[in-house]
Amino acid sequence: MIPCSEVFVTPEEPNPEQKDPSLAQTGGGQPRLQKRLGRAQALGISSEMDTLYGRNKEEHPEPIKAEVQGQLPTWLRGILLRNGPGMHTIGDSKYNHWFDGLALLHSFTFKNGEVYYRSKYLRSDTYNCNIEANRIVVSEFGTMAYPDPCKNIFAKAFSYLSHTIPEFTDNCLINIMKAGDDFYATGETNFIRKINPQTLETLEKVDYNKYVAVNLATSHPHYDSAGNVLNMGTSIVDKGKTKYVLFKIPSSVPEKEKKKSCFKHLEVVCSIPSHSLLHPSYYHSFGLTENYIIFIEQPFRLDIVKMATAYIRGVNWASCLAYNKDDKTWFHFIDRKTKKEVSTKFYTDALVFFHHINAYEEDGHIIFDLIAYTDNSLYDMFYLKNLDKDFEENIKLTSIPTCKRFVVPLQYDKDAEVGSNLVRLASTATAVKEKDGTIYCQHETLGEGIELPRINYDYNGKKYKYVFATEVQWSPVPTKIAKLNTQTKEMIHWGQDHCWPSEPVFVPNPDAKEEDDGVVLTCVVKSDPKEAPFLLVLDAKTFTELGRATVNVEMHMDLHGMFIPEQVVKTETD
Ligand SMILES: CC1=C(/C=C/C(C)=C/C=C/C(C)=C/C=C/C=C(C)/C=C/C=C(C)/C=C/C=C(\C)C=O)C(C)(C)CCC1
Ligand SMILES: [Fe+2]
Fold first, then answer.
1. How far is the CA of 173 from the centre of ligand 1 (A)?
2. Which of 104, 309, 378 most suits a substitution to test ligand 1, by most atoms within 8 Å of the C-beta?
3. Contact 129, 205 (CB under 8 A)
4. Where are the domains of the chain?
5. Parallel, antiparallel, or unpaired for β 229-238 and 216-217?
6. Where on this chain does Fe cation bind (predicted)?
7. How are strands ordered across the β-sheet holding 287-288?
8. Is this complex's ipTM strictly greater than 0.90?
9. pLDDT tens by residue, 264-299
10. Mean pLDDT confidence for 507-513
């Protein structure tokens, strides 16, 4: 447990006398927490951060019927469940970074042509401790939380020693994962939180570390055809080694063990030693084909010594991430049957990426698509101080998100000449044999200015055509959503004035014959706060609007989510 009783503050702690005394009391049950939350939410509306990103959002735990315009397909039944940061100010303390905010879950339930909206803060230990203390008391990636600010350096050092390995946050704000019959909010630490997808209530806290030695784990797991979860995490300097660990969570457990959690049956698939003991790569997702797991070791690395001393040095963990543009990016391919890594060394130039799009095999090659950058300006762009009222003009990415395709020949003529391109498919991507036997890969660009990519997941690991994504140019403003045809590189778009669409989620038509038979769902928030947000339903083939469900609430900008078909979870009105 995170110790709620300790009084922590963030570095920018204001004068304690400015605090509202009604917020300073400790103890008390849920009603008091609720009251404080209300006040915290009110306090979050500051002129400095009065933007769609920084403003605290109210939760709406009871279903609100949306006003539906247009005709939603009758087969669209289930819950769109999404996650993202909703609260960045607690009492007088503020998070530094948008990705630090407290997780706010929200859902749209589709039933008989009607749509119901609800939202609820994840009651993580982090949330409870912060609200109880009425300040940020648990560190997030971009915000280090401190014990009493009056402590001098020696007191800080003592406090540091008693927190040598601080308990990580369980503020799981990034995504939603299905494991077995259950759903979890996920972040990137060793904790995930079970949630009720209908009521959005927070349930058990799961510590991956009890089942597999990882300190960090991705929030973008994959699912195999049997519904097992495949995920990976980093094990930092454990028994003198730093490694990336791939693990599998079974979709079901034997009948006689039904009461046990599926995590008890978690299996380690394999592990990949890190190129560097003290500088493991940061990664946010990985790839999967029918026969291989793809892990990309990018030169965007955590500095473990810096991390271990961050607390005492008064810096956040994010400052311990560094991109080395002169290093290589290594590709690792693990055979899913043998669990062994392909021995040939493949690499490309330095890049930064967060999202794999899809990957597949063709004629002895592995093809994988990423959204990549040439620097780390994306993370920096989301510091809240950058997202104040003039950010649309002032904040610019120095690297545009680029959809890159790599084509990697697993089977090639071992006697091929040094310097020859081993790619035998129609692509401008290359893979050139080098003197030492390593293979240097260069990408083909499929498109630019898209992020938060989604596909028809039935095509995950298979040859595919379509990417659905949010369109951005050089700023953090999502202006449109796009459908990219990876074969022709054509893009079609949906966008309207003042509309900021979220990550588009593809939902297949149950009778689908083609990859894009279905709808695309996106939450649209308005840049004018007086206008109501809506959930947009597009025909995935043509990107024409089928309908929209408008909800008169202040909706948060979110990150990721999933659609849960009705047969998987009964809808709330059942
Ligand atoms: C949202 C919009 C856009 C795009 C957004 C993108 C590309 C978002 C990517 C999000 C990522 C990479 C989120 C990662 C979050 C990571 C977190 C919260 C990690 C926490 C880890 C902790 C606390 C671990 C500590 C570990 C230690 C200390 C280990 O020693 C655009 C750009 C499309 C525009 C519209 C909106
Ligand atoms: Fe992500």
1. 9
2. 378
3. no
4. 4-565
5. antiparallel
6. 220, 284, 355, 560
7. 287-288, 292-297, 329-335, 346-348, 439-442, 430-433
8. yes
9. 999 999 999 999 999 999 999 999 999 999 999 999
10. 98
Sign for the pseudo-dihedral over CA of 301, 307, 313, 314:
positive
Q: Which DSSP state fits 309?
A: H
Q: How many CB atoms lie within 10 A of CB 488?
A: 9
In the numeric block, which tokens belong to residue 353? 């990426």
Range list of β-strands (E), 410-514: 430-433, 439-442, 444-448, 450-454, 466-471, 480-485, 491-494, 499-501, 505-508
Residue 122 near residue 102, CB atoms below 8 Å: yes
Q: Cβ contacts of residue 74 below 8 Å, gap of 6+?
A: 113
Q: Which helix (H) or strand (E) holds 266?
A: none
> What's the pLDDT tens digit per position in 198-208?
999 999 999 99
For 313, the token pair is 């040095």
Strand order in the sheet with 491-494: 450-454, 466-471, 480-485, 491-494
Closest ligand 1 atom number to CA of residue 558: 1
Q: What is the DSSP letter of 341?
A: B
Mean of all residue pLDDT scores within the chain: 88
Going by CA atoms, what residue is nearest to atom 25 of ligand 1?
141
Token pair of 494, please?
Answer: 């949906």
What pairing do the DSSP bridges indicate for beta strands 430-433 and 402-409?
A: unpaired
Query: How big is the CA angle at 245 (ends 241 and 247), to the nearest 5 degrees?
Result: 150
Q: What is the DSSP letter of 23?
A: H
pLDDT band at residue 396 using 50, 70 and 90 as cut-offs? confident
Q: Has 355 been labeled as part of a binding site?
A: yes
Ligand-binding site membership of 560 (annotated) = yes
Task: Select from 369, 375, 362 the least CA-distant residue to 484.
Answer: 369
Please say if the pLDDT value at position 42 is more than 60. no
Of the given ranges (36-45, 138-147, 173-182), which has the lowest mean pLDDT?
36-45
| Whole-number Å distance between alpha carbons of 566 and 198 | 11
| 198 or 32: which leads in pLDDT | 198
Q: % helix / strand / coil in the chain, to the nearest 5?
A: 15, 40, 45
pLDDT reported for residue 36: 36
Q: How far is CA 327 from the centre of its chain?
A: 25
b/e per residue 149-172 (b: at least 16 CB within 10 A): eeeeeeebeebbeeeeeebbbbbb
According to DSSP, the β-strands at 93-94 and 89-90 are: antiparallel
Q: Return the pLDDT at 571.
A: 52
